[in-house]
Specification:
This protein is α+β, with helices and mostly antiparallel strands. The chain has helices at about 20-30, 45-65, 75-85, 85-90, 110-120, 165-185, 245-250, 265-270, 320-330, 360-375, 385-395, 405-410, 435-445, and strands at about 30-35, 40, 65-70, 75, 95, 105, 130-140, 155-165, 190-195, 205-215, 220-225, 255, 275-290, 300, 310, 310-320, 330-335, 335, 350, 380, 400-405, 415-420, 425-430. The radius of gyration is 24 Å and the shape is globular. It binds adenosine-5'-triphosphate (ATP) and magnesium ion.
């Protein structure tokens, strides 16, 4: 992408309305624009990051055996009357009346609709286990939307729903999602810690929240230090096998939000040198809720003995539009965002220090072509702007590597690479720059771990 042809409305000043750093940085880096309270447009740079986040979520859902579909945003109230939630949901639900006076709503979640799909088509226990997911916009009329896309009214959710014959099979489905989530957050470049959680209005017996550790998190969290940096289950994990050892291994170490524990219980349970009291951002939530929806909505299959069995269900959410600011909260510095490579809008920014100088332009064009050919995701800053402004933009938008070339370096056949995260700089022969960048970037994509 050539920056001169891109749409990147960066702001010099820090916007006053933003209270937390991720919101400030997303506005300053031209990632989002507020359209109404709790409603945002995703501008190209933000959308590019969001799509990388989504792709990782999809890959890990698919790997775990979940199957993607897409349900509508606007739903009929009748389905929600069947489960009893139409009245129970309260003011968070955006209710709509269509031209025929039919009650509709903008979906805050999809348990009812997915249960309806299931009961329409699935008849036999032989079709289980089944896990269906989609990534779709939700609307919740939050009392206090805040912190940009961290808590918005319209937001994107990946919501998966599992269907099983009994509780034991449901637990296995739960554990598959648990492992998929460990992998997902690791690949997104954040520390995502599973914590025992309250099941909330959706209800249920088994519930874990995944929290990204960040000082501005809304939840106080207490955890065992060894959970931080604990190696995640590898890419070749057999999702059809027994995942309970992994599940036990992770859940035997103490980790809970303040809703579920208190400092005294935490201190009693964890050795002093392993105690971490921190703050967290909830980015995912997995629940098992048995027959809460399948029973009233009559979602049953024929069991092995020919009798009807009401299926057991679980639901599994992740918020991609919350994850983007959560990643920023966990990874930034005074100059701007510091993207993990796996979700960075661009992996490399090529900075032409003297746009308009024929020799530098030509050398940068060649490099730009080579970087693209090497499969790197490149932004080429070809604008006629002072070097200082280019460096500031590159730092602000958080591209992991800057490849810097000007007339002086060119004369000596040298380019410079700046590592955004550490500030380290290396000077190297022009001819080796592309290979060097590939070597730096590829392992950090975390797509083969
Ligand atoms: P919270 O406790 O933060 O209000 P929740 O428990 O109501 O969230 P869930 O129903 O568990 O949320 O939704 C699953 C995921 O959807 C959450 O883990 C979060 O990542 C995301 N999410 C929920 N509400 C919002 C929101 N208002 N804005 C952005 N993302 C959200
Ligand atoms: Mg939740």
């Amino acid at each position: 992408m050539r920056l001169s042809r891109y749409f990147l409305p960066v702001l010099k000043e820090s916007p006053k309305e933003a209270e937390i750093v991720s919101h400030k940085l997303m506005l300053r880096a031209g990632m989002i624009k507020q359209q109404a309270a709790g409603s945002y447009s995703w501008l190209p740079l933000g959308f590019k990051v969001l799509n990388k986040v989504i792709k990782i979520i999809e890959e890990e859902q698919d790997r775990s055996g979940a199957v993607q579909l897409l349900m509508p945003t606007v739903q009929s109230a009748d389905l929600w009357r069947e489960s009893g939630r139409y009245d129970a949901y309260g003011k968070e639900m955006l209710r709509i009346v269509d031209r025929h006076e039919r009650d509709m709503l903008y979906g805050p979640t999809n348990e009812e609709m997915i249960t309806d799909i299931f009961r329409t088509y699935v008849r036999s226990y032989k079709d289980l286990p089944l896990n269906l997911y989609h990534i779709q916009w939700k609307f919740r009329d939050e009392v206090r939307p805040r912190f940009g896309t961290m808590r918005s009214r319209e937001f994107l959710m990946k919501d998966a729903y599992s269907f099983d014959l009994d509780e034991a099979a449901s637990q296995r489905a739960f554990q598959r999602m648990f492992v998929a989530y460990l992998r997902t957050f690791y690949r997104l470049g954040v520390v995502g810690i599973p914590m025992r959680a309250d099941a909330g209005p959706i209800g249920g017996d088994m519930s874990y929240e995944f929290q990204v550790l960040a000082d501005t998190g809304e939840s106080a969290v207490f955890l065992h230090k060894d959970l931080i940096g604990k190696p995640i289950p590898a890419i070749d994990t057999d999702f059809r096998g027994d995942l309970s050892p992994i599940f036990k291994d992770w859940t035997s170490l103490f980790a809970a939000t303040d809703e579920m524990t208190d400092e005294a219980a935490f201190k009693a349970a964890v050795p002093e040198d392993k105690q971490v009291a921190a703050r967290g951002i909830e980015v995912g939530h997995i629940f098992y809720f048995g027959t809460k929806y399948s029973k009233p909505m009559k979602a049953a299959v024929t069991g092995p003995d020919g009798k009807d069995v009401i299926v057991h269900m679980g639901s599994y959410g992740i918020g991609p539009t919350r994850l983007v600011p959560a990643i920023i909260e966990a990874s930034h510095d005074d100059a701007g965002i510091v993207w993990p490579v796996s979700v960075a809008p661009f992996e490399v920014v090529l900075i032409n220090l003297k746009a308009g100088d024929a020799a530098t332009d030509a050398a940068c064009e060649t490099l730009y072509g080579e970087l693209n050919a090497a499969g790197l995701d490149v932004l080429y800053d070809d604008r006629d702007q002072p070097a200082g402004a280019k460096f500031a933009t590159a730092d602000l938008i958080g591209v992991p590597y800057q490849l810097i070339l000007g007339p002086r370096g060119l004369k000596e056949g040298q380019a410079e690479i700046k590592h955004r995260k550490t500030g380290d700089r290396e000077t190297l022969p022009l001819a080796t720059a592309v290979d060097r960048l590939r070597t730096l970037v590829e392992p950090q994509r975390r797509d083969k771990v």
